[in-house]
């Protein structure tokens, strides 16, 4: 697939992934500005102090933050800090943690994931209750946490009510409530609620706040909205997990720029708006959507024969080959012109490709 993508004609912006986008100019400027003189390493520097203060301004004075290089590291470090080897994390089967992180959690934490089949990417309290089996029985792993993604891997967004009931269910059973927030900004933008409300009112214990998909070169933050026993272990687990940056100032400076005047929110609002535009253009073509478009992802069902020709025009991933579901992602730098040009390309291939018999509506 890599070789193929080298062969394809150059496309400045496509719809494959939000982490295929570049760096927001203000973030790039902040990296350049931080490239000045020497400061202490490993986070003991003024950039990190300012970025942590910016997170506290956003999340509340009690919040704690730990910067990491990437999303996989942030998930693994946050959860590993909470786990004993005979414990387990309940998560949706499609969780990035479960299917896209090469077993990093299992290897690093030495613990188990209990993956649950869900609808629309969302775990419910009923799923959690059903997964709580073998409690106290030494023949079975002991669930110690739940992990969800907000926004989910299929672009849907948990409502505040859904989060609250999940938080209640988790805490009723003494489970840590972890959120993979690689796209937390997009979820907050979609819900139109303050990040503090989203995290604190729903009872989330620990979340990641994604930077990479929202305009950073690299960098994620593990955030805890209020003090938690986890904070004791996190600095050590982050270092063991190779996620403690020696030149921390270059992650911190990026976050400082992202949090300044709500750039994170503007970026996410823009990406979400571009997804809505793409969804409305493709829906007008009669292209069905596999999931509701609630953040910056559009999952469309295309005629099988249309997928490859369209991929040749502008690269994107086939999400579910069997069901002909493709994933299109928008980013902070997607323009309306990009969306219209892509939707025109979709229109062209869909018009010239008859649906296969199994994709035709029943007579
Ligand atoms: C939901 C989700 N979580 C975590 C990650 C991991 O991020 P990284 O690739 O930086 O490790 C991704 C990246 O695609 C993601 O989509």
The main β sheet shows up as: 7 strands, mixed
Instruction: Report the structural category.
Output: alpha/beta
CATH superfamily placement of the largest domain: Type I PLP-dependent aspartate aminotransferase-like (Major domain)
Q: Helical residue percent?
A: 40-55%
Overall strand count: 10
Q: Within the largest sheet, what's the order of strands?
A: 1-7-6-5-4-2-3
* Global geometry: globular
Bound molecules: pyridoxal-5'-phosphate
Describe the structure.
The chain has 363 residues and is an alpha/beta fold. The protein has 2 domains: 2-22 and 264-352, Aspartate Aminotransferase, domain 1 (Alpha-Beta Complex), CATH 3.90.1150.10; 25-261, 3-Layer(aba) Sandwich (Aspartate Aminotransferase, domain 2). It is 43% helix and 15% strand. The chain has helices spanning 2-7, 25-34, 46-59, 71-80, 96-99, 104-109, 125-131, 160-172, 184-191, 195-200, 230-240, 249-259, 263-284, 304-313, 336-352, and strands at residues 64-68, 87-92, 112-116, 142-149, 176-180, 206-210, 220-224, 297-301, 317-320, 325-329. Strands 1-7-6-5-4-2-3 form a 7-stranded mixed β-sheet, sandwiched between helices. Helix 8 links the parallel strand 4 (142-149) and strand 5. It is globular. The two termini are 38 Å apart. Residues 19, 70-72, 75, 96, 149, 153, 180, 182, 212 line the site of pyridoxal-5'-phosphate.
């Amino acid at each position: 697939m890599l070789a193929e993508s080298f062969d394809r004609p150059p496309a400045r912006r496509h719809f494959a992934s939000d982490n295929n986008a570049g760096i927001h100019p203000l973030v790039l400027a902040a990296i350049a500005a931080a490239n000045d003189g020497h400061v202490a390493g490993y986070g003991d520097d003024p950039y990190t102090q300012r970025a942590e203060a910016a997170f506290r301004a956003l999340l509340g004075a009690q919040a704690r933050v730990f910067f990491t290089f990437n999303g996989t590291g942030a998930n693994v470090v946050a959860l590993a800090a909470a786990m004993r080897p005979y414990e387990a994390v309940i998560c949706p089967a499609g969780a990035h943690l479960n299917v896209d992180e090469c077993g990093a959690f299992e290897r690093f934490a030495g613990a188990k994931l209990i993956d649950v089949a869900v609808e629309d990417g969302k775990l419910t309290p009923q799923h959690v209750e059903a997964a709580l089996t073998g409690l106290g029985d030494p023949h079975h792993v002991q669930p110690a946490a739940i992990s969800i993604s907000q926004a989910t891997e299929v672009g849907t967004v948990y409502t505040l009510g859904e989060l609250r009931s999940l938080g209640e269910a988790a805490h009723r059973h003494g489970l840590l409530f972890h959120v993979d927030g690689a796209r937390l900004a997009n979820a907050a933008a979609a819900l139109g609620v303050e990040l503090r409300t989203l995290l604190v009112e729903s009872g989330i214990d620990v979340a990641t706040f994604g930077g990479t998909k929202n305009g950073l070169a690299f960098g994620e933050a593990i955030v805890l909205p209020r003090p938690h026993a986890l904070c004791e272990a996190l600095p050590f687990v982050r270092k063991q997990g190779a996620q403690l940056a020696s030149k921390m100032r270059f992650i911190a400076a990026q976050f400082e720029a992202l949090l300044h005047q709500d750039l994170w929110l503007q970026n996410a609002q823009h990406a979400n708006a571009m997804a809505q535009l793409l969804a409305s253009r493709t829906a007008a073509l009669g292209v069905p959507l596999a999931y509701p478009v609630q953040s910056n992802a559009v999952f469309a069902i295309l005629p099988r024969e249309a997928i490859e020709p369209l991929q040749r025009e502008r690269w994107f991933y086939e999400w579910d080959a069997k069901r002909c579901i493709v994933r299109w992602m928008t980013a902070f730098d997607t323009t309306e012109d990009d969306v219209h040009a892509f939707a025109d390309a979709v229109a062209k291939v869909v018009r010239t490709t008859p649906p296969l018999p199994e994709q035709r509506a029943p007579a």
